[in-house]
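TL;DR need structure tokens for one chain.
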Amino acid sequence: MRSPTFLLDRSMPLVADTSAIINLMATGCASKVIAAIPNRILTVDVVPAELEIGRARGRCDADRLQELVATRHIEIVALGEAALQYFAQLVVGPAVDTLDDGEAATIAYAVDHGCTAIIDEKKATRLGGQRFPSLRLISTVDVLLHPEVSRHLGEAHFRDAVFAALRDARMAVFPHHLDRVICLVGAERVAQCLSLPKSLRASVPDSMAATVEERP
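>> reply
TL;DR here they are.
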């Protein structure tokens, strides 16, 4: 499947939410993936704060993000006055109609600056599209499927990077990408990808599936 047209626009910055950042780092080659993308990759300053929460659970995502910032692979940005108003619209109200801070800040910045937001959660994608019809939305999978990524990594490393994001970060995959992702991962590794639909993992031997389900 080809990348969305606006992902191929080199002048269009991409602003990633917390889950997207985690997914990219889980590939094991985030710097190479980002270097292959011709677009600037941004993340809102709320995201580092959310990653810091994981430190208490022994996660080092916050440190890895700072490394990517230090090497200028990712740029941290802040919400301006207009974006803060959009942010408030997304975090104030009943839980069913609101988002967490990282998702809301990402969407607010994208709307304010005309960027493309990298969002993996279905609820955030739905609410963002409903509230802001002009919002450009893609997922981490869209980024990984950019033609320059596979060319830059080489086919074998590219397949391993997609698999690692699925296995280690439980990267979400929207239905229209399932066939492509399964083809890349390979049937023998599908059982280890718990973010994929259970029906796709049903043919795995019970002993292997049980082992996978015990992963933290």
